[in-house]
Amino acid sequence: MSVVVAHAADLAAYVGQPLGASDWICLDQARIDAFAALTGDDHWIHVDVERAAREMPHGKTIVHGFLMLSLIPVLQRGIYTIQQRGRGLNYGCNRVRFTAPVPVGSRVRLRQSVKACTRLEDSTRIAFESTIELEGEERPALVAETLLQIYDR
Questions:
Q1: pLDDT of 99 strictly over 80
Q2: Pick from 3, 65, 75, 136: most CB atoms within 10 A?
Q3: Is 151 helix (H, G, I), strand (E, B) or coil?
Q4: Per-residue confidence at 70, pLDDT binned at 50, 70, 90?
Q5: What is the SS3 assignment for 139?
Q6: What is the pTM of this model?
Q7: Are the CB atoms for 152 and 123 separated by under 8 Å?
């Protein structure tokens, strides 16, 4: 169940608390290949299935770290909803760590908590602790402090 708030500033009530987790999604080779084509990051560890079968641990390609990071906006939609809001902008990241490789075919989900919520003149800036979990593994795939700025209507 996702958290629903009327305004972005209402997330201040959740500072230091978990918001929840998204649904699991599967990361297949087609998504990895599309990301490689889009970004130009076509290193063989991501896109060469045959070579990965020979040379990579577990014999599989791995998901790009930046693909994992780019999933946060879509995955967080299943965690919380702000009912009355204007435009929202990714404000950046204070810290990002890719803590474990993600083999093709893995299922991941996002878990978030609110680290800080700052009211500005015409918007609210929210800092999240964002963790992408890898199904069946204790160690997360990604840990980041992500920032979102939501403007008033």
A1: yes
A2: 75
A3: strand
A4: very high
A5: coil
A6: 0.94
A7: yes
Strand-pairing partners, residue 130, are: 112, 144
Percent of the chain with pLDDT over 90: 97
Structure tokens belonging to residue 79: 């965690």
Mean pLDDT of the chain: 97
Measured CA angle at 125 (ends 109, 12), to 5 deg? 80
Extract the tokens encoding 149.
Answer: 């700025």
The C-alpha atoms of residue 147 and residue 26 are separated, in whole angstroms, by 25
Task: Give the residue carrying structure tokens 């993600």.
Answer: 102
Alpha helix positions (H), the chain: 29-39, 44-47, 49-55, 65-70, 72-76
One-letter amino acid of 99 = T
Q: Which of 144, 124, 112, 122 is closest to 14 using CA atoms? A: 112
Tens digit of each residue's pLDDT (9 = 90 or more) over 28-67:
999 999 999 999 999 999 999 999 999 998 999 999 999 9
What is the token pair recorded at 90? 């990714």
CB 19 within 8 A of CB 114: yes
Nearest to 80 by CA among 118, 139, 126, 123: 126
**DSSP secondary structure letter of residue 105:** T
What is the C-alpha separation between 112 and 140, in angstroms, rounded? 13
